[in-house]
Every structure is written in structure tokens, then in C-alpha cells.
Amino acid sequence: MIIKTLCENTSVNEDIKAEHGLSFYLELNNGRKLMIDTGQTDLFYENAEKMEVDVSDVECLVISHGHYDHVGGLNKFLEVNKKAKVYVHELGFDDYFSKSSGEIKYIGMDKNLAENPQIVKTKGIFEVDEDIKLFSDVAHETPLPASNSGLFMKENGEIVQDKFLHEQNTIIKEDGKYVLFTGCSHNGIVNILKQFYKNEGRYPDFVIGGFHFSWKNADADADFSYVDEVGKFLLETGAKFYTGHCTGIPAYERLKEIMGDKIDYLASGSVETL
Questions:
Q1: Could you give the C-alpha distances from 139 to 81, 125, 133, 163, in angstroms and in order?
Q2: How many CB atoms lie within 10 A of CB 57?
Q3: How many domains does the structure of the chain reveal?
Q4: Which residue range or ranges hold the Metallo-beta-lactamase domain (predicted)?
Q5: How far apart are CA 38 and CA 151, in angstroms?
């Protein structure tokens, strides 16, 4: 599997741009082409062209959750790709908000896309095919990231704390290996991995995604005691981790000290072969 990072908060060079968002392009060994998320703007498409990725050839797009920094490029994707199925959790088009400096801001999906014929709404464990599976409904056995505190949803007409029921994770099985894509891990990367184990009877071989230790990559106030505990658990799974985006650079550097070569960072323009 080849993984190309089309969009992330940082970049590998000046030619490839970055933004607060996340988007991956995947090319499986059998030639199938998929994407996970579309970043905050059309930047994923601009970077895709520079990285020799033809977005119109993608046959499957998974939206990890209904936040602007993962779905902002969806209009552009649907403009250039008329064949891919786009898998969105059935709650993905609900109303989601962030709160900063006392101001509530809508950060949800473009509701005009909800009835697009390419959209497939999912829930629970959803099998795309025999090699690709999505799952949500993650049990909260351990604390969620503290940086979730500024994120909200509308429920019964009121603004309440986001429950992240709209977040889904992607499992791809290839050559006997399990690869897990987590988006932002709002439900907690430890909880997601424990749910994976419950569902599959094992841990994944590779895990790719953000851990939401930090709202912005520039933040340096992550709770490192929480990061330390998470890092120890991640090591115990035996998986190889690739992270970025909402993990935050300070938290990643801390994880790197704990996990060594079991974790690496993916920036815009990164290309990894599993």
C-alpha cells in the first residue's frame, strides 16, 4: 500500500502547501485507489496534482467525521470525480461547532451535499467490501482528549458537548495485514484501538491518523501525563503508527521519545509504502 499525504498542517517542502486539515490518498497493491478525508479547502487537489495523483480515478472516499478540516474539499472532490462512492456516517451532516474566545462557530459539513447520489451513509460496523470496513460506536473506556472540550453539537435544538458519534474509522486488510485509519481520534486513540480489538480479535499492524492532543499544531500546552500513558499503551499493541495534524508537534515529539521507531510523522507531501 502506498500512502500519499495530500494535506496536513505541515509540509515536506515549499512546493507542497500545508493547512490545518487532513487528507490521504491510498493506492493498494491490487491497484485500487482510495482517499480518506479532503482537508479544509481545495488544497488537497492542488497538492494531488503536484504529487501525480489523479483524483478522478479514486473509487472510494471515506469521510472520517463531519468537521470542516476533513470535509472542506468535498465539493471539489465531487466536482472532479463523478464515480467514487463517498462514505459518511449517518450523523455526519448534523450541526457541529467549535468555541474559541467565547465565540461559537459552525464547523460542520455542507448540507447541500447530503443528498448527492455519490454519498453513502453509514453506521456501526459497515463493510464496504471484503477488504475495507468502517466502524464507529467506540466505547469510552478511557478519558477522551482534553482538546475535545471546545467542540460542540446541536441536540434537540440545544448546543451541547460533541459526543463524536459521527466519527468513523477505516480498516483496510491487505496481504494479511490490517491497516487502521483514525481521522482525528476524537473518541480517544486508546478507546479506538480497544474497540478494534473487540471487533477483530487483534490489534492492527499499522495505524495512521491524528490523536487530537492539540487543537492547533502550534499549541505547546498538551497534557504530557496523558500523552505518556497513551504512548505506553500504543507500544503495547505492537503496531507501527504514523500521525500528524491534530496530534500537535510537541505531543508527537513526546511520543517519539517514548515510542522510537514505532511512530513517525506524516506531513503534506509525505509518501509511505507499507
A1: 35, 13, 18, 11
A2: 14
A3: 1
A4: 20-245
A5: 20
Let me know: does 104 contact 164? Beta carbons within 8 Å.
no
- Residue type for position 266: L
Contacts of 161 (CB under 8 A, 6+ apart): 148, 149, 151, 152, 153
Q: Which of 74, 86, 59, 87 is nearest to 23 (CA)?
A: 74
DSSP assignment, residue 140?
Answer: -
Name residue, grid cell 495530500: 6
C-alpha 62/C-alpha 89 separation (Å) is: 9
| Spatial distance between the Cα atoms of 144 and 226, rounded to a whole number of angstroms | 10
Cell of 13: 517542502
For position 55, which CATH number holds?
3.60.15.10
Angle between helices 224-237 and 189-200 (to 10 degrees): 20
Helix H or strand E segment including 234: helix 224-237
3-state secondary structure of 206: strand
Q: Which pLDDT band holds residue 224 (cuts at 50, 70, 90)? A: confident
For residue 32, the one-letter residue type is R
Range of the domain at 123: 2-273
Average pLDDT, the chain: 95
What is the bridge-based pairing of β-strands 177-181 and 206-208?
parallel
* Cβ neighbour number for residue 221 with a 10 Å cutoff: 12
Query: With 50 as the cut, is the pLDDT of residue 247 above it?
Result: yes
Of the candidates 212, 221, 153, 142, the residue with the CA atom closest to the CA atom of residue 183: 212
434537540: which residue's cell? Answer: 156
pLDDT for residue 215 is more than 80: no
- CA 192-163-204 angle, to 5 degrees, is 10
Cα-Cα-Cα-Cα dihedral of 187, 190, 26, 14, to 10°? 80
Contact 207, 198 (CB under 8 A): no
